Amino acid sequence: MVIIMVMVILGNFEEVSILGNNGEASPSQCKEEKDLLVKECKPIMLGSNPTGSCCQRIRAVHMECVCPLVTPKIANLINIKRLIKQMKGCGRTVPHHFKCGSITTP
Length: 106
Known about the structure:
Elements: H1 2-8, H2 27-41, H3 52-60, H4 63-66, H5 72-75, H6 80-89, E1 99-100, E2 103-104
Helix pairs in contact: 2-3
Function: Plant non-specific lipid-transfer proteins transfer phospholipids as well as galactolipids across membranes. May play a role in wax or cutin deposition in the cell walls of expanding epidermal cells and certain secretory tissues.
Domain Bifunctional inhibitor/plant lipid transfer protein/seed storage helical: 22-100
Signal peptide: 1-18
């Protein structure tokens, strides 16, 4: 499930209404965002393309909620090219040389 969350960290992220006063998500908000992301995007783990609701989650999640989960062990399991393709399929661009946890995009 963590692999799904990593997909969302590689694009430009939209602000959502659950932001706190300082513009960052609280720990409880991050947990809620991660749980919703996993729920909506679980089929991607089995090789499916993202659904509309999954893409919506991908566009809405805050990178500060998922970047800490990208450990070196997780990064070794990720196919960056596939992740970029999935992000583009959701209408998101992927910044070059973006660092998130243990991943840097090409």
